[in-house]
Specification:
The protein has about 350 residues and is of the alpha/beta class. The strands form two sheets. Strands 2-1-5-10-9-6-7-8 form an eight-stranded parallel sheet, with helices on both faces. The chain has a two-stranded antiparallel sheet with strand order 3-4. Helix 7 runs parallel beside helix 10. The protein is globular, with a radius of gyration of 18 Å. The two termini are about 30 Å apart. Bound molecules: zinc ion. The site of zinc ion (ZN) has 7 residues, from loops.
Protein backbone atom coordinates (compact mmCIF):
# COMPACT_ATOMS: atom_id res chain seq x y z
CA UNK A 1 0.00 0.00 0.00
CA UNK A 2 1.26 3.42 -0.97
CA UNK A 3 0.57 6.56 1.04
CA UNK A 4 0.52 9.84 -0.90
CA UNK A 5 0.75 13.05 1.13
CA UNK A 6 2.74 16.21 1.70
CA UNK A 7 3.46 18.64 4.57
CA UNK A 8 2.44 21.33 2.06
CA UNK A 9 -1.26 20.56 2.67
CA UNK A 10 -1.02 22.93 5.68
CA UNK A 11 -0.48 25.82 3.27
CA UNK A 12 -4.19 26.02 2.38
CA UNK A 13 -5.23 28.40 5.16
CA UNK A 14 -8.88 28.90 6.13
CA UNK A 15 -10.30 31.70 8.33
CA UNK A 16 -10.01 31.42 12.15
CA UNK A 17 -12.51 28.95 13.59
CA UNK A 18 -13.05 27.16 10.28
CA UNK A 19 -13.33 23.39 10.86
CA UNK A 20 -11.37 22.48 7.71
CA UNK A 21 -8.18 23.88 9.22
CA UNK A 22 -4.48 23.49 8.61
CA UNK A 23 -4.06 21.31 11.72
CA UNK A 24 -5.74 18.51 9.79
CA UNK A 25 -2.60 18.44 7.63
CA UNK A 26 -0.51 17.95 10.77
CA UNK A 27 -2.57 14.81 11.47
CA UNK A 28 -1.70 13.56 7.98
CA UNK A 29 1.99 14.28 8.68
CA UNK A 30 1.92 12.36 11.97
CA UNK A 31 0.13 9.39 10.40
CA UNK A 32 2.61 9.35 7.51
CA UNK A 33 5.56 9.52 9.91
CA UNK A 34 4.30 6.50 11.85
CA UNK A 35 3.63 4.69 8.57
CA UNK A 36 7.26 5.26 7.52
CA UNK A 37 8.55 4.11 10.91
CA UNK A 38 6.67 0.87 10.44
CA UNK A 39 8.36 0.33 7.08
CA UNK A 40 5.56 1.71 4.90
CA UNK A 41 6.13 3.69 1.68
CA UNK A 42 5.04 7.25 1.00
CA UNK A 43 5.37 9.46 -2.03
CA UNK A 44 4.87 13.16 -2.68
CA UNK A 45 1.88 14.35 -4.70
CA UNK A 46 2.08 15.96 -8.12
CA UNK A 47 -0.22 18.69 -9.39
CA UNK A 48 -3.28 17.70 -11.40
CA UNK A 49 -2.99 18.72 -15.05
CA UNK A 50 -5.43 21.06 -16.84
CA UNK A 51 -6.70 18.10 -18.88
CA UNK A 52 -7.38 16.05 -15.76
CA UNK A 53 -9.34 18.91 -14.16
CA UNK A 54 -11.28 19.66 -17.34
CA UNK A 55 -12.78 16.17 -17.43
CA UNK A 56 -15.15 17.10 -14.60
CA UNK A 57 -14.98 20.90 -14.17
CA UNK A 58 -16.19 23.70 -16.46
CA UNK A 59 -13.52 25.87 -18.14
CA UNK A 60 -14.93 29.10 -16.60
CA UNK A 61 -14.77 27.57 -13.14
CA UNK A 62 -11.17 26.40 -13.63
CA UNK A 63 -10.26 29.96 -14.64
CA UNK A 64 -12.02 31.32 -11.56
CA UNK A 65 -10.06 29.04 -9.19
CA UNK A 66 -6.77 29.70 -10.99
CA UNK A 67 -7.39 33.43 -10.57
CA UNK A 68 -7.36 32.97 -6.75
CA UNK A 69 -3.64 32.16 -6.89
CA UNK A 70 -1.78 34.53 -4.56
CA UNK A 71 -5.01 35.88 -3.07
CA UNK A 72 -7.50 35.28 -0.29
CA UNK A 73 -10.94 34.86 -1.86
CA UNK A 74 -14.34 33.72 -0.63
CA UNK A 75 -15.64 31.28 -3.25
CA UNK A 76 -18.74 30.15 -1.36
CA UNK A 77 -20.39 30.78 2.03
CA UNK A 78 -17.93 28.37 3.68
CA UNK A 79 -15.21 27.89 1.05
CA UNK A 80 -12.19 30.20 1.13
CA UNK A 81 -8.78 30.46 -0.46
CA UNK A 82 -5.49 31.76 0.90
CA UNK A 83 -2.63 32.77 -1.43
CA UNK A 84 -1.35 29.17 -1.70
CA UNK A 85 -4.73 27.43 -1.96
CA UNK A 86 -4.79 27.16 -5.75
CA UNK A 87 -1.46 25.36 -5.79
CA UNK A 88 -2.38 23.13 -2.83
CA UNK A 89 -5.76 22.21 -4.34
CA UNK A 90 -3.92 21.13 -7.50
CA UNK A 91 -1.76 18.88 -5.30
CA UNK A 92 -4.88 17.41 -3.68
CA UNK A 93 -6.46 16.55 -7.03
CA UNK A 94 -3.12 15.30 -8.36
CA UNK A 95 -2.65 12.99 -5.37
CA UNK A 96 -6.09 11.49 -5.96
CA UNK A 97 -5.20 10.78 -9.59
CA UNK A 98 -1.87 9.26 -8.52
CA UNK A 99 -3.66 7.01 -6.03
CA UNK A 100 -6.08 5.77 -8.69
CA UNK A 101 -3.30 5.23 -11.22
CA UNK A 102 -1.20 3.38 -8.67
CA UNK A 103 -4.08 1.06 -7.83
CA UNK A 104 -4.75 0.36 -11.52
CA UNK A 105 -1.15 0.05 -12.73
CA UNK A 106 0.34 -1.85 -9.78
CA UNK A 107 -2.71 -3.67 -8.38
CA UNK A 108 -1.67 -2.33 -5.00
CA UNK A 109 -3.82 -0.07 -2.78
CA UNK A 110 -3.05 3.62 -2.41
CA UNK A 111 -4.29 6.24 0.04
CA UNK A 112 -4.09 9.98 -0.65
CA UNK A 113 -4.15 12.09 2.54
CA UNK A 114 -5.12 15.49 1.17
CA UNK A 115 -6.85 18.77 1.84
CA UNK A 116 -8.84 20.67 0.78
CA UNK A 117 -11.48 17.93 0.43
CA UNK A 118 -13.41 17.53 -2.81
CA UNK A 119 -16.79 15.79 -2.90
CA UNK A 120 -19.01 18.91 -2.62
CA UNK A 121 -17.24 20.70 -5.49
CA UNK A 122 -19.52 20.77 -8.53
CA UNK A 123 -18.75 21.10 -12.19
CA UNK A 124 -18.98 24.89 -12.06
CA UNK A 125 -18.65 25.89 -8.41
CA UNK A 126 -16.77 25.51 -5.15
CA UNK A 127 -18.83 24.38 -2.20
CA UNK A 128 -18.57 23.02 1.33
CA UNK A 129 -14.81 23.56 1.85
CA UNK A 130 -14.09 21.92 -1.56
CA UNK A 131 -12.31 23.51 -4.56
CA UNK A 132 -11.68 20.65 -6.97
CA UNK A 133 -13.57 17.37 -6.79
CA UNK A 134 -10.53 15.19 -6.11
CA UNK A 135 -12.21 11.79 -6.18
CA UNK A 136 -14.23 12.62 -9.30
CA UNK A 137 -11.07 13.77 -11.08
CA UNK A 138 -9.48 10.44 -10.07
CA UNK A 139 -12.48 8.47 -11.34
CA UNK A 140 -12.39 10.32 -14.66
CA UNK A 141 -8.64 9.70 -14.93
CA UNK A 142 -9.18 5.98 -14.41
CA UNK A 143 -11.88 5.94 -17.10
CA UNK A 144 -9.54 7.77 -19.47
CA UNK A 145 -6.92 5.09 -18.74
CA UNK A 146 -9.32 2.44 -19.99
CA UNK A 147 -10.86 1.25 -16.74
CA UNK A 148 -14.40 0.29 -17.74
CA UNK A 149 -16.17 0.22 -14.37
CA UNK A 150 -15.24 2.57 -11.53
CA UNK A 151 -17.13 2.66 -8.22
CA UNK A 152 -16.92 5.63 -5.87
CA UNK A 153 -18.03 4.83 -2.33
CA UNK A 154 -18.49 7.95 -0.23
CA UNK A 155 -18.28 7.20 3.50
CA UNK A 156 -18.19 10.88 4.54
CA UNK A 157 -21.14 11.86 6.76
CA UNK A 158 -22.16 14.47 4.17
CA UNK A 159 -23.62 13.55 0.81
CA UNK A 160 -21.16 14.06 -2.05
CA UNK A 161 -23.40 16.17 -4.24
CA UNK A 162 -20.59 17.15 -6.59
CA UNK A 163 -19.53 13.59 -7.31
CA UNK A 164 -23.13 12.47 -7.71
CA UNK A 165 -24.04 15.08 -10.32
CA UNK A 166 -20.81 14.67 -12.28
CA UNK A 167 -21.61 11.02 -13.00
CA UNK A 168 -25.42 11.10 -12.71
CA UNK A 169 -25.94 10.04 -16.35
CA UNK A 170 -22.93 7.75 -16.53
CA UNK A 171 -23.33 3.99 -16.06
CA UNK A 172 -19.57 3.42 -16.03
CA UNK A 173 -19.10 5.22 -12.71
CA UNK A 174 -21.22 3.87 -9.85
CA UNK A 175 -21.63 6.38 -7.01
CA UNK A 176 -22.64 4.99 -3.62
CA UNK A 177 -22.99 7.18 -0.54
CA UNK A 178 -23.89 6.59 3.10
CA UNK A 179 -24.61 9.91 4.80
CA UNK A 180 -26.62 11.74 7.44
CA UNK A 181 -29.96 12.85 5.98
CA UNK A 182 -31.55 15.31 6.12
CA UNK A 183 -28.34 17.32 6.50
CA UNK A 184 -25.90 19.50 4.55
CA UNK A 185 -25.82 19.75 1.53
CA UNK A 186 -29.47 18.66 1.25
CA UNK A 187 -29.07 16.15 -1.57
CA UNK A 188 -28.76 12.37 -1.27
CA UNK A 189 -32.34 11.15 -0.87
CA UNK A 190 -32.76 7.46 -1.67
CA UNK A 191 -34.82 8.28 -4.77
CA UNK A 192 -31.89 10.12 -6.39
CA UNK A 193 -30.83 7.07 -8.40
CA UNK A 194 -29.22 8.47 -11.55
CA UNK A 195 -30.65 9.55 -14.85
CA UNK A 196 -31.00 8.07 -18.36
CA UNK A 197 -28.25 5.53 -19.01
CA UNK A 198 -27.04 6.23 -15.50
CA UNK A 199 -30.31 5.20 -13.80
CA UNK A 200 -29.44 2.81 -10.98
CA UNK A 201 -25.78 3.83 -10.95
CA UNK A 202 -26.29 6.32 -8.13
CA UNK A 203 -27.09 4.57 -4.86
CA UNK A 204 -27.89 6.82 -1.92
CA UNK A 205 -28.22 5.43 1.59
CA UNK A 206 -29.66 8.27 3.72
CA UNK A 207 -29.23 7.59 7.45
CA UNK A 208 -30.92 9.56 10.21
CA UNK A 209 -28.93 11.45 12.84
CA UNK A 210 -27.87 9.12 15.64
CA UNK A 211 -27.09 6.11 13.44
CA UNK A 212 -24.29 3.97 14.83
CA UNK A 213 -21.93 1.11 13.99
CA UNK A 214 -24.60 -1.57 13.75
CA UNK A 215 -26.79 0.58 11.48
CA UNK A 216 -23.86 1.21 9.17
CA UNK A 217 -22.91 -2.47 9.21
CA UNK A 218 -26.45 -3.43 8.25
CA UNK A 219 -26.65 -1.14 5.22
CA UNK A 220 -23.15 -2.07 4.03
CA UNK A 221 -23.80 -5.78 4.43
CA UNK A 222 -27.32 -5.81 2.99
CA UNK A 223 -27.16 -3.13 0.28
CA UNK A 224 -23.81 -1.47 -0.43
CA UNK A 225 -21.67 -4.62 -0.72
CA UNK A 226 -24.23 -6.61 -2.76
CA UNK A 227 -24.62 -3.72 -5.24
CA UNK A 228 -20.84 -3.34 -5.51
CA UNK A 229 -20.40 -7.08 -6.05
CA UNK A 230 -22.99 -7.01 -8.83
CA UNK A 231 -21.32 -3.98 -10.46
CA UNK A 232 -17.86 -5.61 -10.11
CA UNK A 233 -15.73 -2.45 -10.22
CA UNK A 234 -12.26 -2.79 -11.67
CA UNK A 235 -11.37 0.18 -9.49
CA UNK A 236 -12.99 1.08 -6.17
CA UNK A 237 -12.40 4.67 -5.07
CA UNK A 238 -13.27 5.65 -1.52
CA UNK A 239 -14.24 9.20 -0.55
CA UNK A 240 -12.77 8.68 2.89
CA UNK A 241 -14.46 11.16 5.19
CA UNK A 242 -14.43 10.38 8.91
CA UNK A 243 -16.96 12.92 10.12
CA UNK A 244 -19.61 10.28 10.91
CA UNK A 245 -17.41 9.56 13.94
CA UNK A 246 -19.20 9.96 17.28
CA UNK A 247 -16.71 12.65 18.33
CA UNK A 248 -17.01 14.78 15.19
CA UNK A 249 -18.25 18.31 15.93
CA UNK A 250 -20.15 18.88 12.65
CA UNK A 251 -22.44 15.87 12.40
CA UNK A 252 -24.59 13.76 14.73
CA UNK A 253 -23.70 10.15 13.98
CA UNK A 254 -22.41 7.60 16.50
CA UNK A 255 -19.89 5.66 14.44
CA UNK A 256 -16.83 4.58 16.42
CA UNK A 257 -13.31 4.05 15.13
CA UNK A 258 -14.03 0.29 15.09
CA UNK A 259 -17.21 1.00 13.14
CA UNK A 260 -15.23 2.88 10.50
CA UNK A 261 -12.71 0.02 10.41
CA UNK A 262 -15.57 -2.36 9.72
CA UNK A 263 -16.84 -0.20 6.84
CA UNK A 264 -13.34 -0.16 5.35
CA UNK A 265 -13.10 -3.92 5.82
CA UNK A 266 -16.28 -4.38 3.77
CA UNK A 267 -14.83 -2.22 0.97
CA UNK A 268 -11.44 -3.96 1.03
CA UNK A 269 -13.33 -7.23 0.64
CA UNK A 270 -15.15 -5.92 -2.44
CA UNK A 271 -11.87 -4.74 -3.98
CA UNK A 272 -10.23 -8.10 -3.30
CA UNK A 273 -12.97 -9.77 -5.35
CA UNK A 274 -13.01 -7.38 -8.31
CA UNK A 275 -10.03 -5.03 -8.72
CA UNK A 276 -8.00 -2.28 -7.14
CA UNK A 277 -8.75 0.17 -4.35
CA UNK A 278 -7.66 3.76 -3.83
CA UNK A 279 -8.77 6.06 -1.04
CA UNK A 280 -8.85 9.86 -0.86
CA UNK A 281 -9.59 11.81 2.31
CA UNK A 282 -12.63 14.06 2.58
CA UNK A 283 -13.94 15.37 5.95
CA UNK A 284 -13.14 14.49 9.56
CA UNK A 285 -12.88 17.46 11.92
CA UNK A 286 -12.11 16.05 15.37
CA UNK A 287 -8.38 15.59 15.14
CA UNK A 288 -7.89 12.62 17.48
CA UNK A 289 -10.79 10.77 15.83
CA UNK A 290 -9.37 11.62 12.41
CA UNK A 291 -5.96 10.23 13.39
CA UNK A 292 -7.47 7.07 14.87
CA UNK A 293 -9.65 6.45 11.80
CA UNK A 294 -6.73 7.00 9.42
CA UNK A 295 -4.60 4.53 11.39
CA UNK A 296 -7.44 2.01 11.46
CA UNK A 297 -7.97 2.42 7.71
CA UNK A 298 -4.29 1.89 6.98
CA UNK A 299 -4.33 -1.26 9.09
CA UNK A 300 -7.42 -2.61 7.32
CA UNK A 301 -6.22 -1.85 3.81
CA UNK A 302 -2.72 -3.08 4.52
CA UNK A 303 -4.07 -6.33 5.94
CA UNK A 304 -2.43 -5.64 9.29
CA UNK A 305 -5.59 -5.04 11.29
CA UNK A 306 -6.04 -6.76 14.60
CA UNK A 307 -9.01 -9.09 14.54
CA UNK A 308 -12.06 -6.91 14.32
CA UNK A 309 -15.18 -9.04 14.71
CA UNK A 310 -16.81 -9.54 11.36
CA UNK A 311 -20.25 -10.90 12.11
CA UNK A 312 -23.22 -8.57 12.42
CA UNK A 313 -23.70 -7.50 16.00
CA UNK A 314 -20.38 -8.77 17.31
CA UNK A 315 -18.90 -5.31 17.56
CA UNK A 316 -20.49 -2.32 19.18
CA UNK A 317 -21.74 -4.69 21.87
CA UNK A 318 -24.92 -3.37 23.42
CA UNK A 319 -25.71 -1.33 20.33
CA UNK A 320 -27.90 -3.48 18.11
CA UNK A 321 -29.23 -2.33 14.75
CA UNK A 322 -31.66 0.49 15.45
CA UNK A 323 -34.82 1.44 13.63
CA UNK A 324 -32.64 4.01 11.80
CA UNK A 325 -30.69 1.23 10.10
CA UNK A 326 -33.83 -0.67 9.13
CA UNK A 327 -35.50 2.46 7.76
CA UNK A 328 -32.43 3.37 5.70
CA UNK A 329 -32.20 -0.12 4.25
CA UNK A 330 -35.89 -0.14 3.37
CA UNK A 331 -35.61 3.23 1.64
CA UNK A 332 -32.70 1.98 -0.49
CA UNK A 333 -34.49 -1.24 -1.34
CA UNK A 334 -37.63 0.66 -2.40
CA UNK A 335 -35.66 3.08 -4.59
CA UNK A 336 -33.21 0.62 -6.11
CA UNK A 337 -35.49 -2.41 -6.59
CA UNK A 338 -35.88 -1.77 -10.34
CA UNK A 339 -32.10 -1.74 -10.82
CA UNK A 340 -30.62 -4.09 -8.22
CA UNK A 341 -33.08 -6.88 -7.68
CA UNK A 342 -32.57 -8.93 -4.58
CA UNK A 343 -30.76 -6.44 -2.38
ZN1 LIG B 1 -18.15 15.71 5.46
Amino acid sequence: MLLITSPRYEEHVTPPGHPERMERAHVFDAVAARWLEKGGRTTAPRSATPDELARVHAPEYLERVAATGGRAVMLDADTFTSPESYEIALLAAGAAVQAAEHAVDHQEPAFALVRPPGHHAERDRAMGFCLYNNVAIAAAAARARGVERVAVVDIDVHHGNGTQWMFYDDPSVLYVSTHQHPFYPGTGAADEVGNGEGAGFTVNVPLEAGSGDADYDLVYRAAVVPVLDRFAPQLLLVSAGFDAHERDPLASMRVTTDGYASVIRHLVGVAARHGGIALVTEGGYELTALAACLEATLAEVDGAAPGIPDALGEFGAGAPVSSRGHRALQAVRDAQAPYWRGI
